[in-house]
Amino acid sequence: MKVRRTAFTRWMMNLEETVSQSEANFRKTVQKYIVLQIPGAFMVAVLLVVFHYSGYITPSMGLLLFVGWLVKDAVMFRVLRKAYEPGPSHGTDALVGLSAVVVDELAPKGSVRIGSEHWSAIAADSTTPLDRGTEVRVVSVDGYTVTVAAEDSSA
Predict the structure, then answer these.
(1) pLDDT digits (tens, 9 = 90+) for 11-40
(2) Angstrom distance (rounded) from CA 71 to CA 37
(3) Quick check: 134 and 148 in contact, CB under 8 A?
(4) How crowded is the C-beta side of 127, counted as CA atoms within 13 Å?
């Protein structure tokens, strides 16, 4: 006996995937920001050492200025975070993983609706035809044809 997922169950699973994806994206964004700030912090440290040995600043003043520079970087992260976040997928790559609905029976070729667009499609499992109205997920894209798998088989 097949158990059909309710819309709420699918929504909860998508929400969990989104949360874990956003946490991973946030970590990547922080790492990218820190790595890109290292050269600037190094140059400031060298410059402060040169100023110290030239007699322009004391060691405590140099340390204070360096800490101020790091605090500036931490504050600016909140402002610049969006610029460092990974961007959305573009083109046909953005279709992979999206849900679709079968418009013309897939046995194994047919068509699906992704959002408001109709796409030529091939079933990933060519032995089992997919009836009209079946919910599927896009597995890959080749030109103007998407390869799809039934929602139940991808879970």
Answers:
(1) 666 656 666 667 777 888 888 888 989 999
(2) 12
(3) no
(4) 0
